[in-house]
Protein 1
Amino acid sequence: MNYIEYIRSLDYEDLEKFAGKIRNYIIEVVSKNGGHLASNLGVVELTLALYRVFDPYRDYIIWDTSHQTYTHKLLTGRWELFPTIRKFGGLSGYTNIFETKYDRFGAGHVGTAIAAALGIEKALKLNGENSNVLVVIGDGALTSGESLEALNQIKTLNSKIKIIINNNSMSISKNVGALSHFLEKMRTSKIYLDAKKTMKSRLSKGVEKELKKLRDALKVSLTGEDFFESLGLKHFGPLNGHNLKELEDEFKRIKDYEYPSVITVNTVKGKGFEISELDPEMYHSAAKFDISSGTFVKESGIISYSEAFGKTLAKVAEKDEKIVAITAAMKKGTGLFEFAKKFPERFFDLGITEQMCVTFAGGLATLGLKPIFAVYSTFLQRGFDQIIHDIALQKLPVIFAIDRAGVVGEDGPTHHGVFDIAYMRMIPNVKIYAPKNIQDLMGTLYTLLNKELSGPVAIRYPRDYEFGKFEELYDKIKMIDLDKWEILNFGKEVAIVATGYPTMGALNVAKKNNWTLVFARSIKPVDEEVIEWVFENHRVVFSVEEGVKAGGFGEELLNFGKVEILAIEDEFVTHGTRKQLLKLLKLDENGIEERIKEVFERRSIYEDANRIWRT
Ligand SMILES: Cc1ncc(C[n+]2csc(CCOP(=O)(O)OP(=O)(O)O)c2C)c(N)n1
Ligand SMILES: CC(=O)[C@@H](O)[C@H](O)COP(=O)(O)O
Ligand SMILES: [Mg+2]
């Protein structure tokens, strides 16, 4: 069925009913699979109106971040497959050019759409093609550096793109920063909206030009100088993002507009499902939930790495006023909730500005504060230059709490945190630690916060959890000799040197097979005494890490002897549960054992043959 033709055939009453049907379908599927519920519920009408006026099969509609593209997916040929979304082998939770070419540009990270759209528009022009190029971007994503860089070039590039701002005043948490205040004023200015309505109804067609002038002046007087117009874009709206007719009328009006334009659309994040409307932050990236109560389906008695990190930080910070925490719009995900509540003056949510967060932390560190930037591994990729140029070069004692290190699960390849060992390890002056479990993460953090640091430090930990209670774990917390590797099992022939999350699985394998297991909490520096002992006393040495092989921990060990590296090969990892992916990568217990036995057998056959040949 061609849903684009179908939605165009409906009158507004039926279209509204269809919007309801889409909402129910999204709620039903997300309740089973998890996903970006609130963001998607907010853009149902926006997507319908947009696709009645513009053509997703002909025009180029680029969705920023693309976590809000479920309606787009449903309308562009994926209705039946939708229940597979985010599941292993199923649809991606984001736009993906390998899924369909009507996902015009893949994303997952914030702020890429305007730049991509400008490139696409230029390419179309150079190819002699003529299609509309549009961007749909959230108010949160709009504030990221890359969006602002691209906005700044629109006029110079003679672009005609149309940018639709989905203005719901939310990033994941409340949106922050001056631009968000500007949008918020636009959104809530009842006077503006009312005045606009009155003017429209009172003035005749002939004075429309005057009306527009008046409207612009009014906009400026209420919100300050119009940010977008000062960049050379025409600014329309704000529109009611849940009024299909209002949206459609305005989209039609600007369809053939010859200038670059911005249309602000006010939406309610979580719209149409009371539970998510009331708490859009909780249902931004929702786990599976019970539809009637909204309760998340999760095991009881568990604690996540993020939670343990955040609670430990908040506790230690009670006694140390120098500790300050930074997030790039990820307060909830990184577990900084408690810290933010307890120490608002020492907590900084700088919006989606990973680069800035790194340098900001550097500034804090120069004057003796103890900054800790809690950030997902995949998003810290944005701050790579800043880590080198602003932090490491100057040996500034900034702690990078790298959450979601390793495979993250259902978010897939845009979000897996598999590159941080490689991108941090290559930088001089940086120390990197990878705890083996939650107790160890707490001890590592506690130690780092209680000692004098000589330069930047990273701790990496996964999107995972364990059974346990924070208070009990905190009672057992102790200072750790961080750079000392620990031999957790003494065995024969084979030695496994493991770092981070896979260590505990590897330990079971080692015990079962009477092999040596060394836990390398410190990826950098290497404990040279222990690694030399390992090579002197074992026939085959394996390294295990949850990260890419190229530039990873195993490669560091190659400087000391021959190592069989168990890590992620040179490929992007798909989406699925963390368990499924670790199995796929052979980094779970069975996989580690299987690979070691395979290599060990191969090596033994080779060595035996060699011996026979020599005698
Ligand atoms: C570079 C980067 N940093 C952080 C994130 C995490 N993140 C995903 S969506 C989002 C909020 C986006 O807000 P907005 O664009 O307003 O979309 P909404 O969900 O409100 O519709 C954030 C911070 C990301 N995807 N990419
Ligand atoms: C779209 C995005 O980048 C975030 O919403 C991300 O999906 C959150 O991931 P967690 O669920 O791991 O916090
Ligand atoms: Mg938003």
Protein 2
Amino acid sequence: MTDEGFALRDVVVRRGGRAVLDGIDADIPADGITVLWGPSGAGKTTLLRLLDRLDVPESGTVSYRGTPLDELDVLALRRRVGMVFQRATPFAGTVRDNLAVAAPDADGEAVRRVLGRVSLDADLLDRGADTLSGGELQPMCLARTLITEPEALLLDEPTSALDEGPRRAFERSVLELARDGLTVVWVGHDEEQVRRVGDRVLHVGEGRVTT
Ligand SMILES: Nc1ncnc2c1ncn2[C@@H]1O[C@H](COP(=O)(O)OP(=O)(O)OP(=O)(O)O)[C@@H](O)[C@H]1O
């Protein structure tokens, strides 16, 4: 029996008059990497955003570890459940500044450790985030999420803008994080990547979610 991560019950979300999620029931266990997979426009991002309360469903319930999200303080939830978006979103300043925005009290050891977890060199700390390559930016965003020590990580097609080398490095980082106990929900549509990273796949399409 796996521990409960997220549970959705009879969840409805409408966009532009259409039910993108039409009364879905889905369970996302706490262990391993769950991939949300499906064609473009199927509602994967919509579903992912519900898990961090960036959106709320029109009806139905989304729970995390047994508690409905609307009973949790939203900022506390987002400390426990971190998110990395499709496009890297660096803040102004250095890499160190970016990490400090997320965790002002993190000490040097914690900062170096988190960079190590995403395979970034500590030499980058004093570089302006705007000088990083595409392949360095997304890992930095992952590090910025990890430094708050979340229990769960939501990834919205995080490698779609990355070349093959950085893409594989990002995958390895997340596989290791999941092995160390982080709950991961990964939106993807690259079938080979889904096979490489997914412990299980939820298919999203036509308003439904199926295993
Ligand atoms: N704010 C919005 N207003 C109107 N329609 C929206 C809005 N957000 C999403 N949609 C529509 O809802 C549907 C689901 O979008 P969503 O981004 O969740 O799909 P997706 O499966 O993540 O797609 P992709 O793989 O292209 O990112 C799409 O048809 C999209 O056009």
Protein 3
Amino acid sequence: MDNKKILLKAENLCRIDPVNKVKLVKSASCMIHQGDRIVLSGSSGSGKSVFCRMLALLDQPDQGSITFNGQLVRQADIPHYRSAVAYIRQRPVLLRGTVQENLMFPFALHINRERRFNPEKIARFLAMIDKPDTFLQKNAADLSGGERQLVCLLRVLQLDPVILLLDEPTSALDMDMAMQVELLINKWMQLHDETRAYVWISHDEQQKKRVGQQVWHMNAGVLTTGVA
Ligand SMILES: Nc1ncnc2c1ncn2[C@@H]1O[C@H](COP(=O)(O)OP(=O)(O)OP(=O)(O)O)[C@@H](O)[C@H]1O
């Protein structure tokens, strides 16, 4: 692992509740290398989501810095950074329309103006999880919770993220669907020869063993990394 390239380095990240000024995350530092499969555990309310949203720069840190691919991330870099370090939430939000329309949506955004929807790429992902191409024509409103999460993941994966921050992506799913999500993420890691990485928040002990090669722990806003 030591000779793997460092993708992300966060130093002394703090997040303070703007209302009551309590520190939700206290001076968290971490490194994410290529190929890292990290589980983030910790009791409910300990600050795991706050930390991951901050790492994705969806919420601004009150202190600290993030270096990505050796470059300090500045304000102007944030839109690009967010597509490279992508946060996946527990309950996916889909738009009205078909699965394909949902997958095409990111390409209508200014930030992705140089990119084009790639049906072959999506077909490859669908094949990985044994979904037929007809899945693309399904109405998003008719999808199961698990299928919605798969579409949400495909929508992110097609944009070629480098790090996924997975915030309990399967906690609302049954075992079969959870395994499909795990399979898709695993295939994505293999597809890129373990040059990508993820941080996966989970409360499921069996899942933690399946998806985690290292464990980080959050306790009352204090992050500990490197716990075996
Ligand atoms: N936007 C916010 N403003 C103020 N407080 C917040 C905000 N988001 C979360 N918190 C608080 O921060 C603390 C940590 O919440 P967080 O969602 O990160 O916990 P968690 O470890 O992810 O829990 P769970 O495992 O239940 O999802 C909680 O006390 C929560 O109420």
Protein 4
Amino acid sequence: MTIRVAIAGARGRMGQEAVHTIMKNPEMELVAVLDYKEVGKTLADTKLFPQSYSTPVFTDMVALHKKTKPDVLVDLTSPESVYQHTSQALELGIRPVVGTTGFSDEELEELTKYAQTNKVGCIIAPNFAIGAILMMKFAEQAAKYLPDIEIIEMHHDQKLDAPSGTAMKTAHMISARREMHGQGHPKEKETMAGARGADYDGMRLHSVRLPGLVAHQQVLMGGEGQLLTIRHDSFNRGSFMTGVALSVKKVMELEKLVYGLENIID
Ligand SMILES: NC(=O)C1=CN([C@@H]2O[C@H](COP(=O)(O)OP(=O)(O)OC[C@H]3O[C@@H](n4cnc5c(N)ncnc54)[C@H](O)[C@@H]3O)[C@@H](O)[C@H]2O)C=CC1
Ligand SMILES: O=C(O)C1=N[C@H](C(=O)O)C[C@H](O)C1
């Protein structure tokens, strides 16, 4: 069976890569894209894609659903729109595969309950790159032995959210494994606000934004006389595409929400 896929955010950095990925996949068909403004009737009209890309563009998910009946919605938009897109897709019975970051813990909880109650598959993947998933898993394992941890994430300067979804997910995974743990000197004091970064259960998260970067993260784990650095670099957005295609296939087998690709890879 061919999987009918819709993409929200198709004109973006990730969205454009995802369009080509789905177009090239013989098991999938790109049946629609969702935009928030009129950009033409088809993908080709946006001038970002070849003339042969005749996929229709919609600005309303209900109309998109009615006309094209997608199985899956891949969301690569922005932190402001992702919650609304995901909940609307779930209500319509379209399985969301979400790469967009910026969910609050409460939103994740609500979507998890909704997907479970209504038995609709959903994948929320803060990072689709296999190397990044391994970085998170290795850091989670190492935290048992080296619980003093600081995370430094580094991204291009057009990124809207900080800390990154990957840094949040890494902290979340580590936190579930280690005891509540104070770090640094108990009397330490910031003489400039933000100098010690964000605090996630005692772990410090630092966000770097610079032109030239794509997506990079280091997990620093310190112990007596030693430092373990676990680092991952995405040098281009092709690094995320195997994970996008895998998620589109896997979500078809799910009847609940899965948060993080570490839960679906063997
Ligand atoms: N999970 C992962 O592996 C990755 C996730 N991301 C995340 O994906 C998201 C998109 O990243 P980029 O492609 O770099 O951003 P971008 O800004 O290049 O693209 C976002 C696109 O979404 C469109 N958009 C915004 N609001 C919309 C709405 N309401 N409806 C439809 N389209 C809308 C914009 O017009 C734009 O074309 C970000 O949240 C980013 O953090 C980025 C890279 C990898
Ligand atoms: O905005 C990005 O570019 C990325 N966003 C995701 C995140 O917030 O972790 C994934 C990757 O780091 C690229």
